[in-house]
Amino acid sequence: MIAAYNLLWIIGCLLAIPWLLVSVIVSPKRRKTVLQRLGLAIASELRNLKTSNLNSDPLWVHALSVGEVLSAVTLARSLKQRYPDRPVVFSASTLTGYETACRQFGNDLDAVFYFPYDLIFSVRTVINRVHPSLVVIVETDIWPNFLFKMKQCAIPVVLVNARLSDRSYSRYRRFAKWTSPLFHCFSVICTQSVDDARRFMGLGFSADKVAITGNLKYDSAPDLVCQQMIHHLRQILSQTPYRRCLVAGSTHPGEEAIILEAFSRLRNEFPAICLILAPRDIERANEVSKLADSDGLTAQLLTQMEVAPSPNPPDVIVVNTIGHLKALYALCDVAFVGGSLLDFGGHNPLEPAAFAKPVLMGPHTRDVTESCHRLLAAGGAWVVHDATELAQAALTLLTNFERSQAMGNNAFQVLQENQGSLEKTMHVIERFIPT
């Protein structure tokens, strides 16, 4: 299996060389990440790691991008607090994930670096440098060469906060000959729900290798950094004359047009409101700003408001920074969580719920099914399908304080009632930490 996989990798890389070269030249993201991910450059923190014996070999936590990184913050910090004499290192695959991890952890951990591309030499270089005693992978980002190398080195790998949709389960079952050896490289899989556990066991996992530990996102409470950011953003937003605020977070191409249409309709009924739009990819911020302008709305980037406030406050503030969204949810009156109006799988609705805000979302939430179902069942969230429904839902919540407050309180109660995943996950992980 692994030989065929690497043969396909080699063929694919050879065919893609022209595109890869252009991509590295044109894309700042590629330029900043490619050398570390190839294993040709080593993060300075990794060079200084001291791994003299088994008991001091690092604990390695890995998360794909921003969403997974935020899920993993409390887990990585807990590992460092419980094992202060052992290095704890953290990797991310994307530039935004890496930058989020650097900002979240500061000097709390021993190293933050980029996860290697799944090429044999890249994987080997980084693993030899880190020399981990345990690897914890959060949610996704499962790569054959990395996992097989871990198994070859007898290093336990734990998959936490794992989820497996019906669609993915069917796909893995169809190609079980190829996927089964890959998943069996994990020492144990900690799932978000009973249904996720059932699907993993349907792939051939024994019950003793699957643990139902819940969703770590319920335990991701606002931290000190977030509180400081809230204060900073409150001062910026005080520049606007608007009394109420709608935040649309983690939006994708095609969704902003629907949201802007809804906002235009909403302003006709409720003029004293501003819209804060936070595209999932901040590189699209200028594009989103121009889209607002073309709809007859005034728009300004958040960084522009920080540096040079406009004498004429904008109708729409477009977020072009990483790490502000959670704090912006704290300041809004109504929150819309993107990636859900169109079929992008949805994003974390628990971030606004943590601040007792009423949550609006679209119908496409397959990647966050469990938390969305809980919020909807408790009356803490509201599904909208188009611009008309979004405008009407927002207007209802803005003009009915009691309903808005009750919905926000219901969302917060869901968060509180489902906490505890961190301790359950830590209990499983600790079984594999050498003593």
CATH topology of the largest domain: Rossmann fold
Number of domains: 2
Q: Give Rg in angstroms.
A: 22 Å
Average predicted local confidence, pLDDT? 89
Individual helix count: 20
As a percent range, the share of helical residues equals 40-55%
Major pleated sheet: 7 strands, parallel
Helix/strand-derived class?
alpha/beta
- General form: globular
Strand content: 5-15%
Name of the level-1 CATH class of the largest domain:
Alpha Beta
Strand order of the largest sheet: 3-2-1-4-5-6-7
Record field, number of beta strands: 14
Q: How far apart, in Å, are the first and last alpha carbons?
A: 34 Å
- Considering the protein shown, what is the CATH homologous superfamily of the largest domain? Glycogen Phosphorylase B
At CATH level 2, the architecture of the largest domain is: 3-Layer(aba) Sandwich
> Stretches where pLDDT falls below 50 for ≥5 residues?
none
Quick tags:
Rossmann fold, 2 domains, 7-stranded parallel β-sheet, 50% helix, globular
Q: What does this 3D model show about the protein?
A:
The two termini are 34 Å apart. The model has no long low-confidence stretch (mean pLDDT 89). With 435 residues, the protein is of the alpha/beta class. The protein has two domains: 35-214 and 420-432, 3-Layer(aba) Sandwich (Rossmann fold); 224-417, 3-Layer(aba) Sandwich (Rossmann fold). Strand 4, helix 7 (144-152) and strand 5 (157-162) form a beta-alpha-beta unit. The longest helix has 25 residues, at 2-26. The protein is globular. The strands form two sheets. The protein has a seven-stranded parallel β-sheet with strand order 3-2-1-4-5-6-7, with helices on both faces. 44% of the residues are buried. It contains 20 helices and 14 strands. The protein has helices at 2-26, 28-38, 44-47, 66-82, 95-105, 120-130, 144-152, 166-174, 176-183, 194-202, 224-237, 255-269, 285-294, 302-307, 325-331, 350-353, 369-377, 387-399, 401-417, 421-429; strands spanning 59-63, 88-92, 111-114, 134-138, 157-162, 188-191, 210-212, 244-251, 273-279, 299-301, 316-318, 334-337, 359-361, 381-383.
